[in-house]
What does this fold into?
Amino acid sequence: MTRVLHVFDGAADWEERIAIRQLISATGGDHTHVVASVDARIPPSDWFESVCVRRIFAAVGPAFLAGPAFRRLIDAENVGLIHAWGTRAVRIAAGAARAAGIAFVLTRNNPAMTEVESKLIRTVASSPRFGMACASGTVRRRMIEHGVDADRCVLIRPGVDFAAINRARGDGTIRARLGIEPDHRVVVTSPLHRRALDRVMWAGQLLSHIDDRVRMVIYGGGAAAERLSRLAAPMPQAGAVAFVGGSCRYEDWISVADVHLIAPDDDAVRRGSPNGDVSTTSIAWAMAAGVPVVGSAVYAVAELISHKQNGLLVKPERGPRMATRIASCLMDAGDARRMCETARGQAYQVFGVRRFVDQYRQLYRNVTDGAPAHRDIKDPALT
It folds into this structure.
């Protein structure tokens, strides 16, 4: 029985919360789990279904100052494998894993990364027992382009809890709890790059002139969101755009959405930078929830969405077209329903939780054995 230590940092969001929770709550298997944060904040107790979260962090100074406390936790818990979720988590955990001679796994959801992150991952990937789980084919390709050995990278698509989605979709109290009127048409965005926020806010204002029932919900916080929320307050259609932070679960917002919008950093796309791409976990959940997806036609989005088949795509540089695409989903219910049925069927085939957990367990075995990370792990989208 291998003890797996999941380590996350302050950048962890709903994607990491759901993935870790799915792994630690799965029954059976030959792994047990412990969870630790390397950030000063401790998440709410319901993040991981009341599982105790240990806190290991350096209050000041470089990340490696947390190393001694980290190694004490490894010894106390008899950890046999470390699973890092986030760049700061990698900085702190990788040295401890190497010193203890234990296996190391890193999960990456977002294909965009800095040169500093790229160098860090290449360094960690040189360890003899290392595996990197990539949430999309675009992430895996990006890692290989940045010098990570292909044998160390494996594609493991996110798991979606269909039972939870069905319960939420059938719960008539969620809209009221989130402050949504019965006649509101809700457009939910995934967490955004700061340069995409202004375009989404502009689209929300435009849509409100077409239909005053439309509400653009921008999930996630940060300085850019706070700045734009202050900017939006005095606008004529101030109620058309809502900045909801992370106080409510993203899954609840998806369950009440009429459209799901994916908006990357269009400036980066125009410059030809791969950092204009986005994480696609939210697309998987929207597809499973039967919510039509409107997204910019960047690589990661086009990997899952085919225009007018299971969603709508917009050229990244065509800002006004974004509002047009959303309006077409809201006004043409028949076409939107057809795309949603296609997307939901595909989601059942590709994004199951059981497959997600089994593939991670196989990855843990592969890394522990020193085998290629992708051994006996197949992409469900290709089978």
Remarks:
- The mean pLDDT is 84.
- The two ends are 30 Å apart (CA to CA).
- The CA atoms of residues 185 and 362 lie 42 Å apart.
- The chain has two domains: 2-159+352-376, 162-348.
